[in-house]
Amino acid sequence: MHIVVCIKQVPDSAQIRVHPVTNTIMRQGVPAIINPYDLFALEEALRLKDKHGGTVTVITMGPPQAEGALRKALSYGADDAILITDRAFAGADTLATSFALASAIRQIQKNMPVDMVFTGKQTIDGDTAQVGPGVAKRLDFQLLTYVSKVSSVLPKEGQIVVERRAEGGVQLLKSRLPCLITILEGNNEMRFATMPNMFRAARHAVKVWDREAAGITDEDVVRIGLKGSPTVVSKVFAPTPHTDPAEMIDVESGNPRDIADTVLAKMFTRFPVVAKEIAKRA
Amino acid sequence: MSEAPVKKGKRKFELDPRLASYKGVWVFVEHERGQVHPVSWELMGEGRKLADMLGVELAGVVMGAPGEETRRFCNEAFHYGADLCYLMQDDILKDYRNEPFTKGLTDLVNAYEPEILLLGATTQGRDLAGSVATTLKTGLTADCTGLTIDPDNRSLAATRPTFGGSLLCTIVTLNYRPQMATVRPRVMAMPDSDASRSGRIIEQPLGMVESSIITKVLEFIPDANQDKPQLAFADIIVAGGKGMKRPENFQLIWDLAQVLGAEVGASRPVVQAGWVDLDRQVGQSGKTVRPKLYIAAGISGAIQHRVGMSDSDCIIAINNDPNAPIFEFATYGIVGNAMTILPALTESFRQALATAKKAG
Ligand SMILES: Cc1cc2nc3c(=O)[nH]c(=O)nc-3n(C[C@H](O)[C@H](O)[C@H](O)COP(=O)(O)OP(=O)(O)OC[C@H]3O[C@@H](n4cnc5c(N)ncnc54)[C@H](O)[C@@H]3O)c2cc1C
Ligand SMILES: Nc1ncnc2c1ncn2[C@@H]1O[C@H](COP(=O)(O)O)[C@@H](O)[C@H]1O
Predict the structure, then answer these.
(1) Does A277 touch chain B (CB under 8 A)?
(2) Which CATH code is given to the segment(s) A2-223?
(3) Of B157, B164, B347, the CB nearest to A260
């Protein structure tokens, strides 16, 4: 069984700061990590490999330094890694990203058929959850999103049963390989990198594919990168506080009960809807 | 999207004449188990405004199994502002599945050419939106928090958080139609329903046979409602943050919530520490809520939390740091120790409830 896992290197957004004057992102010194949601996808792929045997290939489209993310994935146990990198990919939105990834996966298939493609639920920088569905449509793979559990796979029969998080419940879906699965977070935990895998990861030759190697013809240059992106960012700005600051309740004088009573009295006068809501519960 | 270089200033833009025939605003009416997802009506309210700005019609798209139910959904769509509904009925559409819904919606778009198509950013809406946008090769802006029309060129200007919510960006889809966007539940206000409104229905067949569809739904296991918090739709929420210090102290949050018949919410660190379930996380990577009353104890008010709750009617914030960002947007601020203020609030509310009860 051959599983391709799409991972993305993202800035650790917990550490991103916005410059207070220029409103621009201060990227300096922000460490790059594997998109946390993608680790659930990778771990799920490794578990299926443990169970059924096979190969896990990780791919990423990004700048040359994204190789770091691939090495990390190798150290967790992925077998092969491909970095898809080319200036022509810059500025891609989800439509253009899915075009490039799908094209690269078709190239991978030329060497070894792909049974499943895994993606994370979403990225923490793009945050769209749209790349997975896009890749599936372009490859004409069955699309299974928000999968919390791969219940069973019969690689020979090409059958798969998964649990999919739907609105208000869980769908148990039976489908066929090849398929693309977006994995929901929280249902597994990334294993520790083993010593041998760490050594292997350090030595492994990560394949680096430019546009042509990824199977994108001159003609299709208009479908990748900025040119292939229907959406355009027209403005970036800091959220402006359009609300007034809080009315501060004087805490010097009173004991907690007095403070609480004061808030309630003020609130019931100014917000009849809240008073009504409370009265409903009496 | 986040990597796209930013072009400043007004852009001159002429719509490709071939796309000029795309007219009207559409809202995909999502439903599951006989009920329309409220996000569809929230979008209908928003879609109404966009359609009025453009001077075009607003349509609902209803897809489902044949029967009374889909007609009822169309009528509801009219009540919430739609002028017409596109109705696609087929037994194949009984449960949501990607393949037939993608084909059905894509065919409708190709046949009737809307300029804007809005969907809820739910598990269903995101699954469908990504597939339809790719099939149509058009632009899609996910998880928008604001939608408006650029008066200069009639294009949809969709605003969404970027870089982990630290910044907002406005995204336009220029020479592609329809312009697609998804919006999370509770981000937009629920419009009023007007039962006197009606509209026309345009039916179109799906044109698929079940045997051609690969993925089958074996079973639907509904969430047991009693233990799933309905945070998004709660009218009162008591939420606690890392400032509650210890899991035992979080009981004070539950106590107040119980007296108020409120739902319990939490900031992300609290969820990550395992004090409460993931379902209770409020914010950018949790739920968006808009209760009438939101009580925040020991929550700093980071932007990622704020975007999930700042549309509450009234926010009471308790924090021992007078400079906590939450005081910049809360309604009432109490600088103090949550461990002493919360029990006092619980008592005051208990008394207010008793008084209200006596008053009948
Ligand atoms: C991509 C991304 C997504 C995120 N998504 C979310 C999200 O969905 N939801 C979310 O909440 N966060 C989210 N975060 C995290 C967010 O940035 C903040 O870190 C988080 O909201 C802080 O939680 P907090 O206010 O509980 O904790 P802290 O920031 O640690 O604040 C604790 C507060 O408690 C106060 N305090 C301490 N002791 C007391 C006391 N005795 N009495 C009263 N007050 C006291 C302190 O003054 C402080 O203001 C996200 C972050 C990123 C990067
Ligand atoms: N540049 C990329 N390279 C590889 N995989 C990606 C890339 N961008 C997105 N993905 C995959 O698509 C998923 C959804 O991303 P997004 O649509 O950006 O939220 C991620 O979790 C990744 O698995």
Answers:
(1) yes
(2) 3.40.50.620
(3) B347
Domain range annotation of chain A: 2-223, 244-282
With tokens 């739904």, the residue in question is B217
Residue nearest to atom 14 of ligand 1 (CA): B304
Interface test with chain B among A89, A128, A220, A251, by most B beta carbons within 10 Å = A128
- The pTM of the full predicted model, rounded to 2 decimals, is 0.86
Rounded CA separation B265/B261 (Å): 13
Please give the Cα distance from B116 to B21 (Å, whole number).
12
Which run of H or E residues covers position A175?
A: strand A169-176
ipTM of the complex: 0.86
Contact by Cβ (8 Å): A127, B123: no
> Ligand 2 mean position to B196 CA, how many Å?
46
Residue of A nearest to B173 (CA): A231
- For the stretch B29-60, pLDDT in tens is 999 989 999 999 999 999 999 999 999 999 99
Question: Residue for token digits 């935990």?
Answer: A189
**b/e A81-93 (16+ beta carbons within 10 angstroms → b):** bbbbbbebbbbbb
A257 touches chain B (CB under 8 A): yes
User: What tens digit of pLDDT does each residue of B240-281 get?
Assistant: 999 999 999 999 999 999 999 999 999 999 999 999 998 899
Q: What is the identity of the amino acid at B325?
A: P
